[in-house]
Design brief:
Elements: H1 8-18, E1 33-38, H2 45-53, E2 58-60, H3 66-71, H4 93-103, E3 106-107, H5 115-125, H6 133-141, H7 146-152, H8 159-164, E4 189-190, E5 198-202, H9 210-216, E6 221-228, H10 231-242, E7 248-251, E8 268-270, H11 285-307, E9 311-315, H12 322-335, H13 365-372, H14 375-386
Parallel strand pairs: 1-5, 1-6, 2-5, 6-9
Antiparallel strand pairs: 3-4, 7-8
Length: about 400
């Protein structure tokens, strides 16, 4: 159980202050432009985010911005009618934006992460082990790598896998995640200040909280880039993720009993938590995943239509023809007055559970096809296809 005397947010902010020479910190007032990647979970948004983050003029976070919402305790499900919209949360946007800026920057793979960067990441990943900053500093100063530091601190790297799958051990509901597995290992990163400071944000849960995202940087100009993925591929990817050792987003066992067919846990909901999630607790995993796809894209489409904002669009399937994907990415970049990415940029596998393939969903064809042929799924897919 987390030590109730430890304020994780305060500890992390102290690190940013104590190590500010090692962790160059930007402020929300410095941000001129914010790029928001929009897409459902398992839509390919992590790859798109990675590629855009390679641009020399774009500062990024080392993961999803949802971690910083959780860090500030905008998390947790205490009632069955709560969801990722955070309707009941009184959010301090200035403080949240400051923490986001303090973690944003450009990764420098030629440098080893500093002690401060290792501690910064550790607190996000292992809040139950977070303790005296001086102890963490001593450990990471005297170990050669982040992994070695974890070992010296006595962290069991299989702890979350064992607990979260509910196959070998019980998991205490008072435990929580800030950054959920699969974990991101720390890299050297610093904010690059230019005449135009640009920040990119990405989290699938942002589909339901765009009102919050827009309030983080009120002086900035926002730009939106939508990634669309066909429902059958997304549902397949979500199903694989639900049955992997990662992507646990919400402990709901104290407000609901999950009886999702083809999924072993009774307590842990994976990926985003859309409005109305409690109506799906006795459904099949295929139905739950289709519900997540439909909910996310319905919310995104409604936001784009209501706000009448300009946005870029790319299809996940474009990444299998890299020059088409990069052409669309560069069209978006050029539309907001940024230079193009090089056409030979590498496209790594990012946050995948299995090797990507356009036809992999066909392994579950008998489960997936009847669900994606339903009218509500087809209608949302049609709306997405009509966007040029």
């Amino acid at each position: 159980m987390i030590n109730p005397n430890i304020n994780i947010t305060k500890m992390k902010l102290n690190i940013l202050d104590n190590f500010k020479q090692q962790l160059p910190v930007a402020t929300p007032e410095l941000i001129d432009d914010v790029i928001v990647v929009l897409g459902s979970s398992r839509s390919g948004s992590s790859l798109l985010y990675h590629l855009l983050s390679q641009h020399s003029d774009i500062n990024s976070l080392p993961g999803e911005d949802i971690a910083y919402f959780r860090l500030h305790e905008y998390r947790g499900i205490n009632a069955i009618d709560q969801d990722d919209r955070l309707l009941d949360k009184d959010i301090n946007y200035s403080a949240l934006a400051s923490t986001i800026c303090g973690n944003a920057g450009k990764a420098d793979l030629t440098k080893e992460p500093t002690v401060a960067e290792k501690i910064n990441r550790f607190i996000l990943q292992w809040p139950t082990f977070s303790c005296d900053i001086n102890l963490l500093q001593s450990v990471f100063e005297t170990t050669s790598s982040y992994e070695a530091g974890l070992k010296k601190l006595g962290v069991n790297l299989h702890l979350y896998e064992n607990f979260l799958l509910n196959r070998t051990l019980d998991f205490d509901e008072d435990r929580f995640f800030i950054e959920e597995p699969p974990f991101i290992f720390p890299k050297s990163r610093s904010f690059v200040k230019k005449s135009r400071n640009i920040l990119i944000l990405k989290s699938s849960s942002n589909a339901y909280r765009m009102d919050h995202i827009k309030k983080l940087f009120p002086k900035a100009k926002y730009h939106y880039f939508l990634i669309n993925r066909r429902p059958e591929g997304t549902v397949n990817g979500l199903m694989d993720g639900w049955n992997s050792s990662g992507f646990h987003s919400h402990f709901v066992g104290h407000v609901a009993n999950l009886n999702i067919k083809l999924y072993p846990s009774k307590n842990w909901w994976k990926f985003d938590l859309p409005p109305g999630w409690s109506h799906w607790t006795n459904s099949s995993l295929t139905e739950v995943c289709a519900f997540q796809w439909a909910s996310a894209y319905s919310a995104i489409l409604n936001f784009l239509e209501l706000e009448k904002v300009e946005f870029g669009k790319i299809d996940y399937e474009d990444f299998f023809t890299p020059h088409i994907a990069l052409k669309k990415i560069n069209q978006f970049l050029n539309s907001i007055n940024l230079a193009s990415l090089p056409m030979d940029i590498l496209m790594p596998e990012t946050m995948t559970t299995k090797k990507p393939s356009l036809d992999r969903w066909k392994e579950k064809k008998d489960l997936i096809t009847p669900i994606v042929e339903q009218d509500n799924i087809k209608n949302i897919h049609q709306r997405l296809q009509e966007i040029k």
